[in-house]
């Protein structure tokens, strides 16, 4: 069964576009590997957390920043498609 990604974000903070951009990038990169990406608005101010299935892989508050898209793709790949090459996104 293919994994699902959930991006939990604070709509009051104006982070819908950021969440949608990241969802688009993940769906493009992992078109054959994911069941889907869900955007989940929450009432908790400042929240931006990414899950693969129910496992948290990135939390903005814990890290003190948003993920770079390259970093997010690597985190998703490591959980969802560990043998997948990310091409230029794998380079340091």
Walk me through the structure.
With 92 residues, the chain is of the alpha+beta class. It is 33% helix and 24% strand. The chain contains 3 helices and 4 strands. Strands 2-1-3-4 form a 4-stranded mixed β-sheet. Strand 3 (48-52) and strand 4 form a beta hairpin. Helix 1 packs across helix 3. The longest helix has 14 residues, at 16-29. It is globular. The mean pLDDT is 94.
List keywords for this structure.
alpha+beta, globular, 92 residues, 24% strand
**Global shape:** globular
From the alpha-carbon coordinates, what is the Rg to the nearest angstrom? Answer: 13 Å
For the biggest sheet, the summary is: 4 strands, mixed
Strand content: 15-25%
* Total DSSP helices: 3
For this structure, the quaternary state is single chain
Strand order of the largest sheet: 2-1-3-4
Q: Estimate the mean pLDDT confidence.
A: 94
Low-pLDDT windows of residues: none
Structural class: alpha+beta
Write down how many β-strands occur, each being a DSSP E stretch of 2 or more residues: 4
* Residue share in helix: 25-40%
What is the first-to-last residue Cα distance?
A: 31 Å
The ordered H/E elements are EHEEEHH
């Amino acid at each position: 069964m293919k994994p699902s990604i959930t991006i939990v974000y604070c709509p009051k903070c104006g982070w819908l576009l950021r969440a949608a951009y990241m969802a688009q990038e993940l769906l493009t990169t992992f078109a054959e590997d994911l069941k889907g990406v869900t955007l989940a608005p929450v009432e908790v101010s400042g929240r931006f957390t990414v899950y693969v299935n129910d496992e948290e892989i990135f939390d903005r508050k814990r890290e003190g920043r948003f993920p770079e898209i390259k970093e997010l793709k690597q985190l998703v790949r490591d959980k969802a498609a560990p043998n997948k090459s990310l091409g230029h996104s794998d380079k340091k």
